[in-house]
Amino acid sequence: MHSPTVPVTDYRRTASRRPWAGLPAPVRQELTDLLGGSVTSVRPAGGGFTPGFAAVLSHGEGRSIFVKAAPASDAFVYPAYAREAQVAPLLPPDMPAPRLLGTRTVTAADTDWLLLAYEAVDGTMPGHPWTGTDLAAIEASCTASIRLLSNFPGHLSGSPVSQDITAVPSPFQAVADGGAAPWFLPSLTAGDARRLQELWELSPEALAGDSVLHGDLRPDNILLRSGKALFCDWNFLGTGAAWIDWVGVLPYARGGGLDVDSWLTRSALTRGVPPEHIDAFLAALLAYMIHSGCQPEVESSPQLRSHGRHTAQLIHAWTLSRWAQK
């Protein structure tokens, strides 16, 4: 049975963001001060799944910065930006990430706003199209990140990725017991679901480790510039096996036509990892994306559930392909 068509997510155009004119005047003024001159151009970030303000601000043909802004009244975006403001200053100077220029807190209409300013990166998002060169750059940055974050403060490194990813219930046992498969994965059989449930249960062991990880690496959190991959949005920091971030990107690259199985053996991050540990991570990530894809649509993030369904289909297809090769 073929899966129903789920729109392929264009990660360059997923965000529905607050416009510049919708920011309170004190917030606009503080961002203008961070820029160091009058704002002559506002280029909103098209990627991402939150309504938080995020854009490149420019002053004429000269200075540009990338900024974010969120009010304390936003129960999701504000804590995410606050976590990012906590982590970003602690990243090593040679980290493959845009450089944080500063943070500010400003009050507007009795509400605190958190502002972040980064260097503006003139780069591109991977996947348009996916190329081996771009994937090599991502692998190199994943490897560098593990090394550079080895001394990151332990009390700020987050919770285990395995704990976060399995916090949602597994859908597999219900399907294994004869329940219906998710509507966007009708080809998920009871037998396959039983196998996925076993792998899901293995994931805490498979993902164990003390490496500090980005925790949310996907195409819209990566910028390619001059042959180097920069990782953005450091607000889901976690710990686990060193290869997790790297393998988490591969379903998208495979969906773009790359032979990612060969990359598993090519990369030092995954060359010696037991195949069942890779499968266990894919099972846990698949369960997470199925759960996301089945939730009600989010008005402020109209592409979020489509992203979950699209990613679930990519992971499921790769998992079946891996099993067929054994």
Automatic annotation (TrEMBL):
Residue ranges of every copy of the Aminoglycoside phosphotransferase domain listed in the record: 59-250
Signal sequence range: none
What Pfam family does this protein match (any one)? APH
Q: Which InterPro entries match?
A: Aminoglycoside_PTrfase, Kinase-like_dom_sf
Query: Which superkingdom does the taxonomy of this entry point to?
Result: Bacteria
What is the name of this protein? Answer: Aminoglycoside phosphotransferase family protein
Name the source organism: Arthrobacter zhangbolii
